[in-house]
Amino acid sequence: MKRRLLWKLVATIVIGTILLFWLIHILLLHTEQHMSFIDQRYQSELKAYAKLAEKYHENGDIQSLNEWVKHLQEKENTWVAVVSSNVAPVGNSYISEQYQERFALGRDISWKIHLYFKENPTMDLPFSDGKTHFLITLPDRMRPGAYWFQTSLLLQIALPLLLMTLISLIIYRHVMSPLSQLEKATRQFSDGNFNVRVGKTLAKRQDEITALGDTFDGMAERIGHLIQTQRHLISDLSHELRTPLARVELALSWAENQDLDPKLIERIRYESQQMRVLVEDTLTLAWLDNECPDLRQETLDLTDLIDSIIEDARFEFPKCEIKATMPEHAIIENSSARAIGHAFENILRNALAHTPDGQTVKVIVEKVADQYQIYIDDFGPGIAPHHLTNIFKPFFRLAHSGRQLHRGFGVGLSLAKRHIEVCGGQLSAENLVTGGLRMNMVLPAS
């Protein structure tokens, strides 16, 4: 059936609403009925009043009866009277026994008191002779339904709110339960579990969410296949590229022993090394993107790590000065020395490659709150503002402006950014007001 989920929700809401109105109606009637009678305790008091009045009347003590009636009126703040009745038929009419039994000048204390009447009713308690009546306007304190207004509000507002909340929770659970499974499956899929499926779990529902689960399974199947194919392709590419590169290097070693142009051999060797670096960096970048590994497994001293990298860079770039400002120790927990070291080395080499001879590259390490701020400032020409984010894209290269032997292939900064992100940090670039480019690396301390 099409739109099965829609009809289930409609049925739940419609039936739930009908049941809610019916329940409120029944409860209101039942509660009103229950609250419309004088409490037994007050009925006993009224009967006691009537017995005392009857006692005075039977004894003929009218004075005591008058004093007691006056006292009772003041005590209960109401009207009280003792009256006699003599109902006589006129003409040929007659009074039936049934009417005589039911005849009263007021309401019997066992009768229902209408809660909607503003005025209190007059209660009639007949004496044993059947002709004398004790009449009293029901005192306010004895009137039933004192909490009827609050009770009706509770039944008409609080109860519907509670029941509609319950119905909403039922609908929410019915809809969100499969969506939570889809969310869990999506999270597992994003974490690298490409075999996760939800179709069988949702098959019993046979509604729109089941179709969504089938669509997810189809998507997961296709994307998982594409990723697996990509992995195999990268693996095969790695193997196929490493083999000829090894042969080229072997041939170069042989060529060095022959009478060939040394500059040509040096050029071929450099290009071969560049190709090897390109292959290794590209494979590492693909591995980080595809596998999303957890590298935050060790504690390191950032100062020692950067010091060792700077010493190597000074040896490789002797014509540039590197000025480092760092604390004596900069401890980072739950990180990776290899990943951070590789990233910092790529960034520092890039800065040195774009800094003219005799100029200075600055390295500044500061601790701000619970993270380390690392600045690498070069003395190069800077970058156009619209390219400050593009330089972190794989294989993106600006017009050549650096050293010929370190021009690169546009993978180094992309790989550095990915390494830092895997360690929980961030990497960004900005132009300095004084000229040059600043690479801003932020790393969590723990």
Automatic annotation (TrEMBL):
What is the protein name given in its UniProt record? histidine kinase
Q: Fetch the Gene3D superfamilies from UniProt.
A: 1.10.287.130, 6.10.340.10, Histidine kinase-like ATPase, C-terminal domain, Two-component histidine kinase, sensor domain
Membrane association type: Multi-pass membrane protein
Which parts of the sequence belong to the Histidine kinase domain?
A: 236-446
Q: Which GO terms describe its molecular function?
A: kinase activity
Q: Which InterPro entries match?
A: 2C_sensor_his_kinase, HAMP_dom, HATPase_C_sf, HATPase_dom, His_kinase_dom, HisK_dim/P_dom, HisK_dim/P_sf, HK_sensor
Keywords (alphabetical) are: ATP-binding, Cell membrane, Kinase, Membrane, Nucleotide-binding, Phosphoprotein, Transferase, Transmembrane, Transmembrane helix
Q: What residue intervals traverse the membrane?
A: 5-28
